[in-house]
């Protein structure tokens, strides 16, 4: 079974506008499947840069790719060959002079936009970047919401025949990342240490980053924690949600909140295999918050800035979105059927004066709670944001 991805049409549109398009996302998120779907409508060439025979074809990349200038060339795991970007620039510029201004290269990468841009700086103005997230709530049926929360959005995990099979897939996914993928990226990082860090982050889902505490627990220094965390962020496995820096004349929290991005991986790290186990676990509220945050951010354009707001006196907003036109949306996240925000949310709204404010909860109705504050479910709010 293949679930249609919302990003497909966006990628097609970008290919009609730019010579190169980069689709970024963690391994197994569905980048190759999406690219192959797009390739069905184009004369194309697919190269997997982790495949030795495909890599050998690019030993003289300039000559080889020039013979395929009439095709959409798909380069998978492109971050493995950063020196290729300079060659692509030359080929793109040659093509532009010949009148081929778009649809030359579709690049697939398992690293963050920032990391890939370091390699692809020479393609500035010639490339568009898009991130393929795991499956989100708008790509599944409404009755599958809790299944998506439990299993996460990696297609093979979500589409598993049972919760047990899904848990086994996710455990093997984690092991493969730690034992095979991460060691290929550079200096040797102890697998067990990184596994412990990842698990600690899971236990502290959605909490403020305390690098000193993590360093003490792992018997390393804070610089090492920062380096390991940077790696997890670059691999799109962990999210650092930064605090909002607003001129409100109040003492604001400056540390980021840290989330394991996919809820299924979070639950695998905590050995949670089913909904009963999840609902009875102390992490349930934080898991739901991370799930809501990822789903909402997955439907937003790059231009929207996301953060959270917290003061030392207890005013807090779980998610603040800075939209185009100066709009600011405040979002509080509650797990349960009673969307009752805390006093800190009201105080934070007084500080920031958001254009709109919402409390995301698990019910179906949408209704006003107070002036300019609405109760809403996740699917409906995601639909609102996707329409921006």
Question: Mind explaining what this structure looks like?
Answer:
This protein has 2 domains: 7-131, P-loop containing nucleotide triphosphate hydrolases (Rossmann fold, 3-Layer(aba) Sandwich); 137-386, no CATH class. The chain is built from 17 helices and 14 strands. It has helices at residues 7-17, 31-39, 52-57, 61-66, 84-97, 113-119, 145-151, 155-158, 163-181, 191-203, 211-218, 222-234, 263-269, 275-279, 284-298, 343-352, 378-386, and strands spanning 20-24, 44-48, 72-76, 105-109, 127-131, 207-208, 238-241, 257-260, 305-310, 316-322, 328-333, 356-361, 367-370, 373-377. It has a 6-stranded mixed beta sheet. A 5-stranded parallel beta sheet has the order 2-3-4-1-5. The chain has a 3-stranded antiparallel beta sheet with strand order 6-8-7. It is globular and about 65 Å long. With 388 residues, it is an alpha/beta fold.
Which helices and strands, and how do they pair?
Layout: H1 7-17, E1 20-24, H2 31-39, E2 44-48, H3 52-57, H4 61-66, E3 72-76, H5 84-97, E4 105-109, H6 113-119, E5 127-131, H7 145-151, H8 155-158, H9 163-181, H10 191-203, E6 207-208, H11 211-218, H12 222-234, E7 238-241, E8 257-260, H13 263-269, H14 275-279, H15 284-298, E9 305-310, E10 316-322, E11 328-333, H16 343-352, E12 356-361, E13 367-370, E14 373-377, H17 378-386
Parallel strand pairs: 1-4, 1-5, 2-3, 3-4, 11-12, 12-14
Antiparallel strand pairs: 6-8, 7-8, 9-10, 10-11, 13-14
